[in-house]
Amino acid sequence: MDETKMMDFVGRAVGDVGALLGGAMVVIGDKLGLYRSMAGAGPLTPAELAARTGTAERYVREWLCAQAARGYLTYDGIGDGDGLFSLPAEHATPLTDETSPACVIGAFEIALGSVYATDTIAERFRTGEGYAWGAHDRHVLGGCERFFRPGYLNHLASEWIPALDGVEAKLGAGARIADVGCGHGASTILLAEAYPAAHVVGFDAHDGSIEAARKRAADAGLTDRVHFEVATATTFTGTYDLICFFDCLHDMGDPAGACAHVREHLAPDGTLMIIEPYANDDIADNLTPVGAAYYGFSTLLCTPSSLSQDVGTALGAQAGEARLRGIVTRAGFSSLRRVAETPFNIVLEATP
Prior knowledge:
The protein is α/β, with parallel strands linked by helices. 51% of the residues lie in helices and 16% in strands.
């Protein structure tokens, strides 16, 4: 036994305990507007922040200390008082600006929602049964949208679509798009806003998500050319020039069947765009902070979701390009190529 190594591990484990609790602190800070009130405000006392946000000073003081201990806030002690706390500008953007590709606030919300199902998923380890995506806490559905939307907002129309062979011109001329597994419709609406001549249909198997998506489209004034329907990846109808899977193929019970169904509903020169969580093909190359987050999400969300459906392939959130290539080509596509990537996503183009 190497005592030094053991204590190093204990320190890491204690840090993880702090991180687990810190995630809840971040969600509280977001929900109550604490970060937004601190952004650009300079140093504040607990009483000042409580007054700004209509919250109780005693709770705020404890929250501020917890956040300073995690390094999210800076602290300047003043005599025997509570001191002053500040939110650095470099931290404010990731925690408050949901138009920035650096925004991570949604990741905390989906993580918090995921761990609510810990006992349920532990039991699934014993039975091998699945657990449907829609059965999770509401923070999972809302957090998932908030986590991925900044990336879509900053990269979809400016980089990803232009990287596809000939697709941007088609969308500009009025193509038909299907967004399969659309969730609350963030990606669907972004496509419609970027390409006003296109007609976009979002499909999702979860009734509640489709209801939310329809409201989002109405609020955006897009109901004339954005529609949402309840359907799975193997039951949706219509013919499309572009069909998209935004961070959902790995969640499906039958991804091969989904791709084969897409093949049948593509126009002759149509394109399938697959956006998936960033992953390498070798597990060893995924043992990174991003990989750790995705493997955790995969254990609690993605793998149970797939196992709750027919076939239950359970690709997991770290499937990697090679496994995806095998599924896509076996479904009848002639080619698959990586056209773009970010720290959180890979973007793949499949053609018949």
